[in-house]
Amino acid sequence: MAESQPMVAPQIANLTLREEKAMDRPIRVTVWNEGRHEKRNVEVAKLYPKGIHGALAEYLQSVPGLVVRTATLDQPEHGLTAEVLADTDVLTWWGHLAHAEVADEVVDRVQARVLAGMGLIVLHSGHFSKIFRRLMGTTCNLRWREIGEKERIWVVEPGHPIAAGLPPFFEIAHTEMYGERFDIPQPDAVVFISWFAGGEVFRSGCCFQRGSGRIFYFRPGHETLPIYHQAEVLKVIGNAVRWAAPSGGPVPYFGQVPRPLEPVS
Questions:
Q1: Could you write out the DSSP letters of every residue in 112-166?
Q2: Tally of CB atoms within 10 A around 4
Q3: What band does 17 get if pLDDT is binned at 50, 70 and 90?
């Protein structure tokens, strides 16, 4: 809270994320990346000299109303300390090689924040991350092929906020194929469906709610291809951050209710 409004500050610790967002302030975004491909693969380092997290953060910093920080696997507590997460409205997650290296205590911490209202954007191979599989309660497995084929991404919910400003479809010239069956629970909404030149289809933009938190899974983003430099892909991620951010509104109460609203005889 700004120092110019000190009388409100003592209340902030007692607010949920959605109540906090109702106050007028920027959306606080933490961009998380395991950051291993960039260190091991010269071609990935050329495509993403600041890391995949750096490319995403650079774009999100250009979106009005966002304040962005980054975090990576090799930082203490993976860069996701209790303090960082307490200061995060939306967390974006990219992982691939090192899902098993993510500490369970950090996953517990992230899960608790999502249930309390923090948004979570899971990208590409993050479908196999510990946090996404835990929140989904399924294997999150799928079919895949890596031959650099074309992907056509259809906007099947054009009225959804995540699809704002997009054409009816857009294409990625060369990508890794993900195909159905995608072993996830039934999404609350499917915003995008992908078709691949090899014939497969995939639910590539899926929305979920867990507790008070909104989750969006977005398929594009293979590390050896310049997908996170493509305007449409970045726009989707920016839209998703705004959609997933806590937005105010009633907060459910859990626990004993000693006094009924109406007289009970």
A1: HHHHHT-EEEEEGGGGGSHHHHHHHTS----EEEEEEEEEEEEES-TTSGGGTT-
A2: 5
A3: low
Q: What is the mean pLDDT of the chain?
A: 91
What residues does 208 pair with on adjacent strands? 215
pTM confidence score: 0.88
Estimate the share of the chain in helix, then strand, then coil, as percent rounded to the nearest 5: 35, 25, 40
Report in angstroms the alpha-carbon separations of 101 from 106, 135, 166, 205: 11, 18, 36, 26
Q: Is 261 exposed, middle or buried (0-12, 13-18, 19+ CB in 10 A)?
A: exposed
Q: What is the DSSP letter of 33?
A: E
What the chain holds in terms of domains, given with CATH numbers, is 9-137+205-244 (3.40.50.880)
Q: Which residue has the tokens 């996404």?
A: 132
What is d(CA 225, CA 262) in angstroms, rounded to the nearest whole number? 62
Distances, alpha carbon 81 to alpha carbons 144, 159, 219, in Å: 33, 36, 27
